[in-house]
Amino acid sequence: MGQFHLHLLSDSTGETLENIAKAGIAQFENIDSIRHFWPMVRSDVHLDRILSEIARNPGLVLFTLANTSLRQKLEDSCRALGIPHVAPLDTVTDAMSSILGQEMRNRPGRKHILDDAYFARIDAIQFTIAHDDGLNWENWEEADIVLAGVSRTSKTPTSIYLANRGYKTANIPLVPESPPPDRLFHLTRPMVVGLTTSTERLIQVRRNRLLSLNQSPETSYVDTDKVQSEVAHARRLFADNGWPVIDVTRRSIEETAAAIINLHGDWLNRSSSDDMRDMA
């Protein structure tokens, strides 16, 4: 297993760097990264302490520093130590600057300014938490997206991920013995998406869930015939209502959410086109 130190320096929260680092590491096998996370780096004193740690644990340095003086100091120190250092956003911002004909504004944490988009995301998160697992179904019409699926098809984590992207998301578990609220079949504003998975994978996930709760792993909850019946019932419901379906068997939460966002964009475009035709 390859092991290396990874230093992440940011003048803001460091969320962007963490995502870039995760995406990069995911491209390699048998890698053990020892991460050193340094957010809110905005002073020489702070940077000096970090440079001492970098010298003691040399590795790769990724950074996003808007302050020209701090950035120059970091780059000079890394060169003197012979340590590779990369500003991963430079290529993107340089290309944008060229196309737009504008100089980039070097403002720390600029993407985290409390603008309308920020407050919309907070609103989406609050809505999603309040409408998890079928709660408050009376307000589903206010949602952007409603996820439906049998138990353990990643509805909740996918909803939270979508909320962090600014989508108000509700979700409802589908249980053959307990029909969903009739409101689900008459929604006009939100897009309803069905989540499904393979029977084998669903049984495995449910069995692991039971074990984590110190419950018997052999119940009707993981009975093959019953699970197959649940999945088939959900698929029929999706088909009868013309809802798009995503199989989450081999998808990560991020991949599922990306597929839903694409569907939602297409859905909005179709809805807009239909409205224009009605007006004509």
Summarize the structure.
With 280 residues, this protein is of the alpha/beta class. The protein contains nine helices and eight strands. Strand 1, helix 1 and strand 2 form a beta-alpha-beta unit.
Description:
Helix 2 (44-56) packs parallel to helix 3 (68-81), helix 6 packs across helix 9 and helix 7 (199-212) packs across helix 8. The chain is built from nine helices and eight strands. The longest helix is centred in the C-terminal third of the chain and has 27 residues, at 253-279. The strands form two sheets. The chain has a four-stranded parallel sheet with strand order 2-1-3-4, with helices on both faces. The chain has a four-stranded parallel sheet with strand order 6-5-7-8, with helices on both faces. It has two domains: 2-111, Rossmann fold, CATH 3.40.50; 116-279, Rossmann fold (3-Layer(aba) Sandwich), CATH 3.40.50. The mean pLDDT is 89. It is of the alpha/beta class. The chain is globular, with a radius of gyration of 24 Å.
- Reading off the top of the CATH hierarchy, the class of the largest domain is best stated as Alpha Beta
Counting DSSP H or I runs of 4 or more residues, the number of helices is 9
Mean pLDDT, to the nearest integer, reads: 89
The number of domains is 2
Categorize the overall geometry.
globular
Largest sheet: 4 strands, parallel
Which structural class do you get from the secondary structure elements? alpha/beta
Taking all Cα atoms into account, the compactness measure Rg is 24 Å
Q: Regions with pLDDT < 50 over 5+ consecutive residues? A: none
- Strand content is 15-25%
CATH architecture of the largest domain: 3-Layer(aba) Sandwich
Number of DSSP-assigned strands: 8
- CATH-assigned fold name of the largest domain: Rossmann fold
Percent range of helical residues: 40-55%
